[in-house]
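Pasting as-is:
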Amino acid sequence: MTRIHQHGLNRSLLLHLRDRLPDAKVDLHYDGYEIPESPRPLVIIEQMPSHHEIISKQREGIQAIYRYQIALIDLNSVNLSVNQERLTDIFHFDKFTFYDTLRDSRQTGSFLCDLTGVTPIHPEDKSEKSSYHRVYFDIEIATLKRSGS
């Protein structure tokens, strides 16, 4: 049984989105990350707070929900709407391969994403061109963890 973990999910999301969106630059957000002015489209994967809940007595089973915010920044509103629909379909329908980065990045299983929100962002300051044509996707990946596995 595949044991899903945060680092493996980061890598798996990155590789899947790079494969499915070959015309986009796909980055993983990290401390100190600065959004580049180009290229566009740009997809940024950002880890959000996860949630763990004990679901059995004596902590034999834990439900882990890993959360991500995925930013899409594009050239114009037309490209944004087209790529927004592409990403929405990817998160709704694709099965993502899980790469176990703790075991030489072997493919050890798969997972699905739950798309929980799509939020377009409009700049407050019209002169801030780098804030144009953005949308954010909130996704969750749920898994069960068992003691000793």
